[in-house]
Amino acid sequence: MHKLLTDEPGKKMLLLGNEAIARGAVEAGVAIAAAYPGTPSSEISLNFFQMSQESELYFEYSVNEKVSLEVAAAAANTGVRAMCIMKHVGMNVAADALMTLAYVGVRGGLVILVADDPSMFSSQNEQDSRYYAKLSGLAMLEPSTIEEAKDITIRAFELSEELEEPVLLRTTTRINHSTAVVTCGDISPPKTKGDFTRNPMRYVTVPAVSRKLHVRLLDNLARAEETANQSSLNFTEGKGNWGIICNGVSYTYVSDAVQELGIEEKATILRLGFSHPLPREKVNSFLAGCDRVLIVEEGEPVLEEAVKALAQEKGKLLPIGGKSTALFSRLGEFNPALVREKISAWFEVQETLHDKQEPLIQAELAPRPPTLCAGCSHRATFHAVKKAAAGMDVIYPTDIGCYTLGMLPPLGMADFLICMGSSTGTAAGFSRTLDKKVVTFCGDSTFFHSAMAGLVNAVFNKHNFTLIILDNGTTAMTGHQPHPGVDMEKHGLSGFGKIDIEEVVKALGVGYLSVIHPFKLNKSIKVLQEAFAYKGVSVVIAREICTLYGKSLKMPKMKPFYVSDKCQNHKDCIDQLGCPAFFVKKGRVNIDPDRCTGCALCAQVCPENAIRPVKTNDK
Ligand code: SF4
Ligand code: SF4
């Protein structure tokens, strides 16, 4: 049985933050969940997917976040509890559905988990999702610890039903990816079937309906604020007239810092776990007891601006520090040492020597730049593209996936990237305004997510570029989740459809389509040359399973390669491919047999035919 389905109230489990959130949803009786995978939220959906195989929970990997929210929203409007999981940039995709769903509301609890990524450990920007709470007019909850992440998820479902609105549950990477002991509660059996009574004048958002629904939303927002003022998620601790207001993971840093600096008798903390709408009454009475306040929040100065506006409204004059006072940055993630340092600076408290040691430990860590895995087929495709395009003036807009790493030397195969699915749209723009060949890349999962829409647009508007769909049979970068092109029967899972990318591309009316197997280098180069010569939209599907995924599927392992005595030390293999299985010892190229997957790409690049598969008695 999946560990998160263990029905033993009181049992203690060591859980990742994302597991704690999934467990909270199970305890709350979630019946339907949907997601498009996105780090740092991925393990929530992975656990739902696994649990759905052995429980009544329905989980789906939807093609993108907007669709996943639509699935969850409809289910919640039949009265069942539903959840939708995404990372912060996924919220941009879901936003179209979100903004009007806030008007429509829900009947069963709908929790929308949005995971922000300060410092951009695995993201293209570090936007702050709290603005979406403000923009949509929905309530937002933010856990500070792993244990609380479970409990607050349950509370989010309850609150959603009280307010009859979706509730946004915001985390940051540090909560998603930390581990702590969590105490299990009761599992509520999910209500898996609901009902729906037709009422177009309530649910169909034509302008006449929406005008009334907007009034409803604002009423609900006022109710949410009353609840936030009373909520135990917004609490104060400590004493003294130095005030610190914080949210999310910052609370744990603040709490530790106050103790370590020995200012428990001087500083009062206001922790906002129900952060939107701002509990103004609570914040007002907090400010009344303070003569100096510091706001500690990662990301944008959302709380700071709101608290300052409130103080001004009440005519309360006191110093309020945070980001605008240049104490904290709007960039990156906080850490305990940084928060301690800023608290001591703002309140003019002496730091101890011990406090300053932490950054030194971090400085000792060796940098590990990301790279495509040894034997990754994207390396072969990029190399083939480079050869096929030799002598041409080419621009390479790309997309989001492992293949974005193609930007790094020696491949250098990425010139422009703005968001998920943007490959095809940006390729169209470049092809209209540049006298260059445009070659763009997207992955198989990204194709279904939203690159497909740009391809439809390109065919209709007769744009001129080559799209290379890197079809490696999975959503590799976020941890090998399925997508509509995956044959789930091969994984022993029934009840799924399968959509052939080739058939979709053909059906869209693309003028040139070929499939290559990128490790067959010469054949691939020839096909790519044909595709590049085509005037109009040409598509090449580069099909080869993700080597890391292949390993996890226990596919047969190929013999590793080695560099024989014939090597003339040109180092073409390193200069052109940069496979991480290579290493240089005493000035000569070697291959690490434990890392080499036997893809044979380097053997095809070596001008001396010096790279060979290991055979018995060969070395
Ligand atoms: S996980 Fe798969 S797709 Fe990603 S770099 Fe590794 S082999 Fe390539
Ligand atoms: S065969 Fe060559 S390119 Fe392929 S994984 Fe081994 S060393 Fe890397």
User: Order of strands across the biggest sheet?
Assistant: 3-2-4-5-7-6-12
CATH class of the largest domain: Alpha Beta
Backbone CA Rg: 27 Å
Largest sheet: 7 strands, mixed
Tally of DSSP helical segments: 22
Short description:
Its EC number is 1.2.7.8. This protein is of the alpha/beta class.
Task: Write up what this structure looks like.
- Helix 10 links the parallel strand 10 and strand 11.
- The mean pLDDT is 95.
- This protein has 22 helices and 23 strands.
- It has a seven-stranded mixed beta sheet with strand order 3-2-4-5-7-6-12.
- The protein has four domains: 228 residues, Thiamin diphosphate (ThDP)-binding fold, Pyr/PP domains (Rossmann fold); 113 residues, Rossmann fold, CATH 3.40.50.920; 169 residues, Thiamin diphosphate (ThDP)-binding fold, Pyr/PP domains (Rossmann fold, 3-Layer(aba) Sandwich); 53 residues, Alpha-Beta Plaits (2-Layer Sandwich).
- The chain is an alpha/beta fold.
- The relative contact order is 0.08.
- The longest helix has 24 residues.
- The chain is 38% helix and 18% strand.
Question: How is this fold's topology laid out?
Answer:
Layout: E1 12-16, H1 17-27, E2 32-35, H2 42-52, E3 58-61, H3 65-76, E4 82-87, H4 88-104, E5 110-116, H5 130-136, E6 139-141, H6 146-163, E7 167-172, H7 173-176, E8 179-183, H8 200-203, H9 207-230, E9 234-238, E10 242-247, H10 250-260, E11 267-272, E12 274-276, H11 280-288, E13 292-296, H12 302-313, E14 320-321, H13 336-347, H14 358-363, H15 377-388, E15 394-395, H16 422-433, E16 437-443, H17 444-460, E17 465-471, H18 501-507, E18 512-516, H19 521-533, E19 537-543, H20 547-552, E20 561-563, H21 572-576, E21 582-585, E22 588-591, H22 601-605, E23 611-613
Parallel strand pairs: 2-3, 2-4, 4-5, 5-7, 6-7, 10-11, 10-13, 13-14, 15-16, 16-17, 17-19, 18-19
Antiparallel strand pairs: 1-8, 6-12, 9-11, 20-23, 21-22
Bound molecules: iron/sulfur cluster (SF4) (2 copies).
One iron/sulfur cluster (SF4) binds next to helix 20.
